[in-house]
Specification:
The protein is α+β, with helices and mostly antiparallel strands. 64% of the residues lie in helices and 7% in strands. It is built from 23 helices and 11 strands. The strands form 3 sheets. Strands 6, 7, 8, 9 and 10 form a 5-stranded antiparallel β-sheet that branches. A 4-stranded antiparallel β-sheet has the order 2-3-1-4, with helices on both faces. A two-stranded parallel sheet has the order 5-11. The protein starts with a helix and ends with a helix.
Length: 739
């Protein structure tokens, strides 16, 4: 592989006009496609195989036109102090609001609080519910604007008016200021690492082009493939981070090759052949981790993972072709690494030169490997302890900042009707096989009334055929609480007994039940997903490093860093430790997607650092250095770049912490802290300590397996053979000249 990529890098360097033209054409084509494609809403949300989804599907079949999974909006009214909502003026305001809302094109129904008993016992709070014909995140912007306008007009009369429900949900976006700060930090780190503005600009430029192609392609295909706006979020986040890092590694290696005295075309080929090989395998691990999200069997996650994986593939291809081409354009503006090396050599000759920080650190670890290993493992283990108390759930309006209208509406409803009112449960009674459907529905309702944590059970509503009924249950606890989850399980357990007695099936659904099922599905899929991703990557790393223990150590180190990151997330977002520092206003269960999301993303990125750092050590070991010397050599050439890459990654992810959306804030924090633990503790401390303790055993591989594995030549041994051939050719030419 190294030889092929070496030739590719030289070709891209020589044919830079052609290569640049191809990528600019692809960017233009993707941009035109995105601009001309019909707009698409968020991807449809479904959870195949869960009881809540089965109930939704049954409602659509038995209650045609009911929009069982349609979005809902609630306008909550509170009378001024000393007044009641039943006063004539306030009733007139509510009636006007109900009439205006009923004229919406996507509106299925609007309730009148004074005919549906939607007024609190003290008369101060009332609400109207709006049902739409499309899920909340797929509603047209004009529909949301109409809902907000109705609330503003009612508020102008002196009432306290806030809006809740999922109708106001939109694709969460990170704060623009945070993204800009993240990119600015990345630019500063690149300038410090690469030594010039031109060299620093190359990774930024290529990453932006790669993300532009990836996100534009997703936008162009969004309507046809039902991708939606949320699908591009992960692609943007991962594509930008890996795009910068992959280009950084190749540019850094290019400068190192120049410092060895090679001409620029040869240096570009060498950089692509060596660092480019590491980029290919690092990219493969990320692609495996992201594409593996399909194991969860949630269409939305599958699409997000595949879209992000496609963007990573684009980033790899750009690093292997466009980066060498741009290096050709840059010419002498990209200087060799360590131009002060001559002065340093002079100082070294006088005994005054200091080894680089990476060399000094590696030497320290080699002298005290057991202590460093123990400290790193115990430290991360201690941080991981809160993960044992992990509670999963999905954010609702109660987790929104108190400054939002959704949160204020949530609080008003809790104040007027109790906390469970924000998360009603919908019970679907399938009595098609029952001899007496009405008696079966009554039995279900009576049984639920006797359960703990139930406030209200509404009478059953039957469909036209009379074989299916809907019952609404109001819990006594808030939607995200463990008490509500226990109630859902209790109703389902009771349904098994009712099925035996009445031949009627009982299904629990609604937003709250859907969230519970989604969390459980993700939790059940975590171990199979982890086994698939780690197993495939383990096999891939065996091929790369031609070792058993090095890939095993890499996988165990990754698990340690992910557990520590989850512990930090629990401590901040669930327990509230230091939450004020990053603006967490409401603590609660951890987003159910967080563990599996972190496993997928962090594993891919962690293997990036492992490949880039350890391949340099492997290269030195294969070329004759002792195991200890190889560790030092690896740090001499790669530690500075790996640290820079980690800081850039943390800056990009950290930019998402500024988002007002709790979900995006949690993702940004979790990924940033995971990269910190993995890069600075696992890869910079635990990895060299383990390798120092193992010595030559680290690179052991059974002979039969060595013969069976393909030789991918990541360390560039084939390039050394090319050097030998060139030397032989020069010797032959000299002999001919002499003759």
């Amino acid at each position: 592989m190294a030889t092929f990529l070496y030739k590719l890098g030289r070709l891209a360097f020589r044919r830079r006009h052609f290569v640049a033209l191809i990528w600019v054409a692809l960017l233009t084509l993707a941009g035109v496609g995105a601009a001309s494609a019909p707009s698409a809403g968020s991807t449809s949300f479904s959870i195949p195989g869960t009881e809540a989804q089965k109930a939704f599907d049954l409602l659509e079949q038995r209650f045609p036109g009911s929009s069982a999974d349609g979005g809902t909006g609630r306008i909550v009214f509170k009378a001024p102090e000393g007044e009641k909502m039943t006063d004539a003026a306030n009733k007139a305001t509510v009636a006007k609001t109900v009439k205006e809302l009923g004229d919406g094109s996507q509106v299925v129904s609007v309730s009148d609080p004074f005919t549906t008993n939607a007024v609190s016992k003290d008369g101060t709070v009332a609400y109207t519910s709006v049902t739409y014909d499309a899920p909340g995140m797929e509603l047209a912007e004009s529909t949301r604007e109409a809902l907000e306008k109705a609330g503003d007009e009612a508020r102008a009369t002196g009432l306290t008016v806030d809006i809740g429900g999922d109708a106001l949900q939109a694709a969460a976006e990170p704060g623009a200021a945070g993204e800009i700060i993240g990119i600015a930090i990345a630019a500063v780190v690149l300038v410090i690492t690469l030594g010039s503005l031109v060299a620093a600009g190359l990774p930024l430029l290529t990453a932006i082009i790669g993300v532009g192609i990836g996100v534009s392609t997703i936008t162009a295909l969004a309507n046809a493939l039902d991708l939606g706006d949320t699908t591009s979020t992960l692609a943007l986040m991962i594509g930008l981070a890996v795009g910068i890092d992959y280009a950084l590694f190749i540019v850094s290696r290019y400068r190192g090759e120049l410092a060895e005295g090679r001409d620029r075309e040869e240096a570009a080929g060498r950089a692509t052949g060596t660092a480019g090989s590491a980029v290919v395998f690092a990219g493969l691990t990320v692609v495996i981790a992201l594409a593996g999200l399909a194991v969860v069997n949630v269409p939305m996650l599958t699409k997000m993972g595949l879209a992000a994986a496609g963007t990573v593939v684009v980033a790899v291809l750009i690093a292997l072709t466009m980066v060498p081409a741009l290096l050709g354009y840059a010419g002498r503006k990209v200087r060799p690494a360590g131009e002060k090396r001559k002065a340093n050599k002079a100082k070294a000759a006088e005994g005054r030169a200091k080894p680089a920080l990476g060399v000094r650190w590696a030497s320290f670890v080699i002298r005290r490997p057991a202590a460093v290993l123990l400290l790193g493992v115990v430290g991360l283990g201690a941080i991981a302890v809160p993960a044992t108390q992990l509670e999963l759930g999905l954010p609702d309006d109660g987790s929104q900042p108190t400054s939002t209208t959704q949160r204020r509406a949530y609080d008003l409803l809790s104040e007027g009707f109790g906390p469970g009112f924000n998360g009603p449960l919908m019970i679907v009674v399938d009595a098609k096989d029952s001899a007496d459907p009405k008696a079966a529905a009554t039995t279900v309702a009576d049984g639920i009334k006797d359960l703990k944590d139930v406030v209200t059970v509404t009478p059953a509503t039957f469909n036209k055929a009379g074989d299916t009924a809907m019952i609404t249950v109001i819990p006594d606890s808030k939607p995200s609480s463990t008490q509500t989850e226990d109630l859902v399980h209790a109703i389902r357990d009771q349904g098994a007994e009712i099925k035996a007695d009445t031949d009627a099936s009982v299904l629990v659904t609604g937003t709250t039940a859907m969230n519970i099922d989604f969390s459980q599905k993700l939790n059940d899929a975590l171990i199979p997903y982890l086994g698939l991703v780690v197993g495939l990557a383990f096999l891939l790393l065996i091929v790369v490093f031609r070792s058993i223990l090095v890939p095993l150590k890499a996988a165990l180190g990754f698990l340690l860093s992910v557990l520590a990151a989850l512990g930090a997330v629990v401590a901040v977002f669930q327990w509230g430790w230091l939450s004020g520092l990053i603006g967490v206003e409401e603590t609660g269960p951890i987003m159910s997607m967080m563990p599996i999301f972190m496993v997928g993303v962090v594993f891919g990125l962690a293997m990036d650092y492992e490949v880039f750092l350890v391949t340099r050590m492997r290269e030195a070991y294969v070329h004759g250095e002792s195991p200890s010397q190889a560790i030092v050599t690896g740090f001499r050439h790669s530690s500075r770049v790996v640290v820079a890459a980690a800081i850039i990654m943390m800056a990009v992810f950290g930019g998402f912490i500024s988002s007002s959306e709790s979900m995006i804030k949690m993702i940004g924090f979790g990924l940033a802290i995971a990269v910190f633990f993995d890069a600075f503790v696992v890869r910079m401390a635990i990895v060299p300590a383990v390798l120092a303790l193992l010595g030559k055993k680290a690179w052991w591989l059974p002979k039969w397996l060595d013969r069976a594995l393909p030789n991918v030549d990541v360390e560039g041994e084939g390039l050394r053979a090319l050097d030998d051939d060139k030397d032989d050719k020069r010797d032959e030419d000299r002999e001919l000249v002499q003759v």
